[in-house]
Amino acid sequence: MPYPLCRRGRILLAEDDLSVLEALTMALRNAGYEVLPARSGHEALRLLSPEVDLLISDLWMPRMDGLALLDEARKAAPALPTVIITGNATVPSAVRAMKLGAFDYLTKPFTPPELLEVVDRAIEQGRLRLDLNTLTAGVGHDTAIENLIGRSAAMLEIAQTIRRVAPFKSTVLVEGESGTGKELVVRAIHQLSPRSGQAFIAFNCAAVPGNLVESELFGHERGAFTGAETKTAGYFEAAHGGTLFIDEVGELELSVQSKLLRALESGKVMPIGSTREKPVDVRVLAATNTNLATAVAEKRFRSDLFYRLNVVRIELPPLRKRPEDIALLTASLVARLAGEHHLAEPTIEPSMITAMRRYHWPGNVRELRNVLESLLILQQKSVLTEADLPEHIRNLESRSQNSDLDLDRAERDAIELALRQHNNDRTAAANALHISVRTLYRKIARYGLS
Question: Are 185 and 174 in contact (CB under 8 A)?
Fold first, then answer.
């Protein structure tokens, strides 16, 4: 199913007609919102606070009308989204409302689903813009793990784990799909550890031919094999006193795995061609994009080495599992890339973030970075919008037909279940599904549900 819009928030509602005020208040509260009702523009200004997520105001009110209220509210809270409602719409008033920064303009009479559809979008866009502004201003960075951008529960937990495990020598295994930032986690652990002033050596098992891995890790004596013309220290010795990062550890051949296990347990390495072990003081951090537990079951990875590496395990979620972090990641990457390429940093429109949240990002943060770098170089615009994104991100129909059918089937099943559980109460079902009532009606019609 699509990522849900936020259904909760605090709404300041200004309406001088008491019956309308009460009806709208009830509709919004039934949808899960907190509502601050106000009978006038001046009362609304008194209730305005940083905790308000949306202002809804009637256009025609005595003493202070909706446009005057909007103007004053924008001075106090420039990023606050506002919706103007009226029973006597005119083109000039609508134009002026939009120029003053109103998110939308609704004409009475309107249905609760129509109102909630606008409210959903307004609050979502407002929060996206707030996230973008906050990150652009540099708020919330941690100097040690500043590259691990995210406010999702998963990323906050990972940051906490990093801080807890960093001071110790324990081995850490980082698992996650390609492009999720495993090396960033490992480097953060090293930077926060007592070894931060010592060497950080990275070794990628997948980048070295299998027959050379043992020599690269443990070193070799002169004449140990054809071509070994000099005595060479391995990565373990090079990392003495510091940290050795073994990337793609799941690619190690079984023969090397046993020697790695020996080095981890004894704190000593034996170079190829030598008969004497050398003590090394190294903290080993490992990463893999494969499931090592599955590899153990399939006899492709030693169980004893797996347990030795898996003292502390950190699993990085794919980007599609934390869409709430995309706004922050985008703002951070755009700022960084603009600096690298000596380009002016563009403004990111919330519509672009909304579109990117719907995309599944198979290449994870690495793919996001590449997309943004391409946009900066090719577009060189002051404002980036949804229309600037590649077609395969804007148009989700580019996914395979089978994937679409699976998604449609899952969505239909979820809607049917919600309707049954709430006795066909469509407002309650929409709330349970975290979508607007209007969206639910469209999907009911699309899937032919009664």
Answer: yes
